[in-house]
Amino acid sequence: MQNILDLMLSTNRAVSQDGRETEIHSNIGRDSVNKIRELIRTVGAQKTLEVGMASGVSTLAIMGAHSGHHTAIDPNQTCDGSDGWQGVGLTAVRNSGLEDRFTLLKESSHLALPRLLGEGQEFEFIFIDGWHSFDYTFMDIFYSDMLLRDGGILVVDYWGMPQVALGGIRNQIPDHP
Predict the structure, then answer these.
(1) Residue-by-residue pLDDT tens, the chain, 177 positions
(2) pTM
(3) Which residues contact 95 (CB under 8 A, 6 or more apart)?
């Protein structure tokens, strides 16, 4: 798993669901990977959640920090076209041999998060890096807070974007303003 993540970070390339090599973008960098791993280990998280899987860099970072189960929400993960990720993240998980510890929810977070809450799910670490608009980010934070176990950690990416910045809270992940 580490080799695939290192290769993705060093080349900005990955493999799509149809086997094509593709350039990746919109992913966290190595400093953020290290910080996420540190935070997960700090709380001893074994059940983690991610909103927005994209290329799978954050997914592999999260899964590499624990031996438990990880869930990612991304309605566009296996879609083609300009809004789709062509299964790049899912392929990275498969190629890393981590499929048995992973669940992909191919639905919008505003539908998936309340459903998870209704099912009584709880997580020790949640990473929000989904649709970067005020309304979606606010909804993701609202539901994620209710899904987070006491003492867990909630990380929101891209605080520096005007449409995401809320209440003067500053980003703690090094790669983004």
Answers:
(1) 579 999 999 999 998 888 989 888 778 889 999 999 999 999 999 999 999 998 899 999 999 999 999 999 999 898 777 777 889 999 999 999 999 999 999 999 999 999 999 999 999 999 998 876 777 888 999 999 999 999 999 998 865 666 655 544 444 445 544
(2) 0.87
(3) 4, 15
What is the number of residues in the chain?
177
- By C-alpha distance, which of 82, 65, 95 is closest to 155? 65
* CA 135 to chain CA mean position, Å: 18
Return the structure tokens found at 21: 């090599």
Which DSSP symbol is given to 171?
A: P
In angstroms, the CA 59 to CA 138 distance is 21
